[in-house]
Write a structure and sequence with these properties.
With 399 residues, the chain is an alpha/beta fold. The protein contains 16 helices and 17 strands. Strands 4-5-6-11-12-13-14-15 form an eight-stranded parallel barrel, surrounded by six helices. Strands 7-8-9-10 form a four-stranded mixed beta sheet. Strands 1-2-3 form a three-stranded antiparallel beta sheet. The relative contact order is 0.13. About 6% of the residues have low confidence.
Length: 399
């Protein structure tokens, strides 16, 4: 259930509340990414301490543990998170496991498209057909077939509060013609997801209801984005995921195209973006929740978020720096007094346990930084101060 509480005058932005079986999410909100049912190098207590209101995991990566997670009572209990949870469908892997080694290969592609994307058989990790996607697992080479139906079955076993419909994520290089075909395939998959979701909901009537979001694709093309929003918006989804490959300079246009067509009374999740300018654009143009692995991934590589711009803690200039990661930060790392010089030393240590400690401390900081930003945006919208807050924040951060 979703309720809008405040609207941004003259724009699509709003604040609201999503109610789930494991608690409420006040929106806009940043959802921490725990791909494998845990946020990397953070304990559930660490994530809770950042103020994160939800955790997103990946159905493809958890598919082999789905029965085990089901037996444990679902993702929230299994992970020890015990708060709102979300699962992606595996649609992202259509692109990442395919084009990551030279493009997804589509069985129904035109000869020209097939020629442009063709790779040796041993490099193809994903193959798309109208029925679904055949994956070759990147670790053991086992062939696995994902369909809209199996994605729903796996996600119901995993038991997140919010699930995503199975979709085809295209590459940023794919043209309008291919995106048109892929969008129609995603529309048909969405219908199949809804049918299977309804069947499984009835079959598992003793379990709390799982919300299902339809995922909008259409790449950088306005006609396809608006078509996707109209097509999926007319279906009985509980909310919508905003996905796709595009240049980030187009984000505001794409959100405007999609969210001006989607129902206003259902939540919208912006998939895979967390840079501050993207979050401001998303919130202003009607995105309600966000997720991205970047805050923790970048933390492990020494990129630390500060209000005056990001720093690379691995640089020599921070060797003896006695300052906090970010002056005035309220994260557990900064509140405990860990310094830049200390964390740099741990990060560059030859001792694995010390590097793990650095990953933990830096990840706590970056996740809290991102959560706090979105929380402050929510408060600014509620207080009628969004434009002033946005201008001052971005001016300081980007210099």
């Amino acid at each position: 259930m979703f309720e809008v509480t405040t609207r941004l005058p003259g724009r699509l932005g709003r604040t609201g509340v999503i109610t789930t079986p494991h608690g409420v999410i006040k929106t806009p909100a940043f959802i921490a990414v725990g791909t494998h049912a845990e946020v990397k190098y953070m304990l559930p207590a660490d994530v809770h301490a950042t103020g994160a209101q939800g955790m997103l995991s990946n159905a493809y990566h958890l598919s082999r543990r789905a029965a085990e997670i089901d037996a444990a009572g679902g993702l929230a209990a299994y992970s020890g998170w015990n708060a709102p949870t979300v699962t992606d469908s595996g649609g992202f892997q259509v692109m990442s496991l395919g084009s990551g080694l030279g493009k997804v290969i589509s069985m129904d592609a035109t000869a020209a498209h097939q020629s442009r994307q063709a790779k040796p058989e041993n490099e193809r990790l994903a193959r798309v057909s109208d029925e679904g996607v055949t994956f070759r697992h990147p670790t053991d080479g086992k062939v696995e077939v994902f369909t809209p139906e199996s994605s729903m079955q796996i996600q119901h076993q995993i038991g997140a509060d919010i699930m995503m419909a199975f979709d085809e994520l295209t590459s940023i290089d794919d043209d309008h013609a291919y995106n048109t075909r892929a969008l129609e395939r995603t529309r048909l998959w969405a219908e199949r997801c809804l049918i299977e979701h309804e069947h499984l909901t009835k079959q598992r009537a003793g379990r709390p209801y799982k919300a299902l979001y339809g995922v909008l694709q259409g790449a950088r093309f306005e006609d396809l984005r608006r078509k996707a929003a109209c097509d999926l918006g007319a279906m009985d989804f509980d909310g919508f995921g905003l996905g796709g490959a595009f240049n980030k300079e187009q984000l505001d246009d794409i959100l405007q195209w999609c969210n001006s067509e989607l129902p206003e009374n259902k939540p919208r999740h912006l998939l895979g973006l967390s840079r501050p300018d993207d979050i401001f654009i998303g919130a202003e143009h009607g995105a309600d929740t966000f997720d991205c692995v970047a805050p923790t991934r970048e933390a492990r590589h020494g990129r630390i978020y500060t209000l005056d711009g990001d720093i690379n803690i691995r640089n020599a200039q921070f060797t003896n720096d006695a300052g906090l990661l970010d002056s005035g930060c309220d994260c557990a790392t900064c509140q405990a007094g860990h310094t830049r010089g200390e964390i740099r030393k741990l990060l560059k240590s030859a001792v694995p346990e010390e590097r793990v400690q650095a990953f933990n401390l830096a990840s706590i900081h970056n996740v809290r930084f991102t959560v706090r930003l979105v929380d402050e945006i929510r408060a600014a919208i509620d207080g009628g101060e969004f434009d002033g807050y946005k201008q001052a924040w971005l001016k300081r951060y980007y210099g």
